[in-house]
Design a protein that fits this description.
Blueprint: E1 3-4, E2 7-8, H1 11-16, H2 20-36, H3 45-55, H4 61-78, H5 87-99, H6 112-131, H7 135-153, H8 158-163, E3 170-172, E4 176-181, E5 193-198, H9 205-215, E6 225-227, E7 233-237, H10 243-253, H11 265-277, H12 282-289, H13 294-300
Antiparallel strand pairs: 1-2, 3-4, 4-5, 6-7
Helix pairs in contact: 2-4, 3-5, 6-7, 7-9, 7-11
Length: 323
């Protein structure tokens, strides 16, 4: 590690202050502005306005906003005035929204009966694999059932599921599960977040997690990892980008139609829609899921619940867990 004046270089801390995905997005945005469009840095407000106009209608407004954020950050980091705050830039972006309105794409919520069908199919396949001594299939089915049930009932994002580590969690069989994430999208101060997962009478994420821990041949490291063809569990976590294809493949195998319409957000949105249909107060739902503003919550909740009558699952966030 490089040293300066007897101490570590501050670059690593500056990098750590920004999420890796954000850094990658910002680098790609700067490269697009310079190499693809032919812009020069530092930029002028006029050149940025022309850049926006060039890609209006081709790129979504949210993508253009991300490009602006990257350009703004580059100028701030380099000590230049931020041209993205100029009135002409703001006005052009507003005009793009007016002339090129686009409805935000939303993941199809996973309905409760689909979750039940999927979990039952995975359980059956796991049992068949155990009888056939197919360790790889058994591990994958057990892992996927735990991942999907935990992702649904805790409304986790894919990167949060992949970031869970065994040593940070406390399992209380038959009672609940205490989880800790050192960082997440909603944890702006990077203080870490504790989550409680109640044990349920059906489709229980605690039971599924316990079953997976009993099969996983280690006591630390990532909770959800790859499994090779010989049934060896990797020491590395699943990549967040692998969750969507994993979910779609499992949905298709379980006989659920239009599997390609679902994504990892289908778990999060499915839980929110279910909770809304159960009469959860929006404020309580926001606190449970981790949304900071009402707009975020309403984006995930369907106006008409898809889950029909309430099922006695006792999915209440206030279940006490042993310390």
């Amino acid at each position: 590690m490089q040293m300066q004046n007897g101490g570590p270089m501050i670059d690593q801390y500056l990098d750590a202050a920004t999420r890796p995905q954000t850094r990658r997005s910002y680098r790609a945005a700067i490269e697009h502005f310079e190499a693809e469009w032919g812009g020069f840095l530092p930029a002028t407000a006029d050149s940025i306005a022309r850049y926006l106009a060039t890609y209006a209608g081709q790129l979504a407004a949210n993508t253009l906003k991300l490009r602006l954020a990257a350009l703004a950050q580059w100028h701030i980091d380099q000590g230049f005035p931020d041209p993205t705050k100029a009135p002409v830039v703001k006005k052009v972006l507003k005009g793009i929204r007016v002339l090129h309105p686009a409805r935000e794409k939303q993941a199809v919520p996973l309905q409760l009966h689909q979750l039940e069908q999927l979990a039952a199919w995975l359980m059956t396949k796991e049992q068949e694999a155990a009888r056939a001594d197919d360790q790889a299939q058994r591990l994958r089915c057990c892992r996927d059932r735990a991942l999907i049930l935990l992702g649904f009932w805790r409304a986790f994002r894919s990167d949060e599921l992949c970031r869970l580590r065994i040593e940070d969690n406390a399992l209380h069989p038959g009672q609940g599960l205490a989880l800790f994430l050192p960082r997440s999208k909603s944890d702006r101060r990077n203080e870490g977040t504790h989550f409680k997962v109640p044990a349920l009478s059906r489709l229980c994420p605690v039971e599924a997690y316990q079953s997976w821990m009993e099969l996983l041949p280690r006591q630390q490291g990532p909770v959800f990892c790859a499994v090779d063809r010989w049934g060896h569990a990797s020491d590395s976590a699943l990549h967040p980008n692998s969750i969507i294809p994993l979910l779609r493949i499992r949905l298709q195998e379980a006989g659920i139609s239009d599997a390609d319409l679902y994504s990892s957000h289908s778990l999060r949105r499915g839980f929110a829609t279910w909770a809304n249909g159960q009469g959860w107060d929006v404020k309580a739902l926001m606190e449970y899921v981790g949304w900071k503003d009402m707009k975020s919550a309403l984006r995930y909740i369907d106006a008409t619940p898809h889950f029909g009558d309430a099922l006695a699952l006792h999915a209440v966030p206030a279940v006490p867990l042993a310390k």
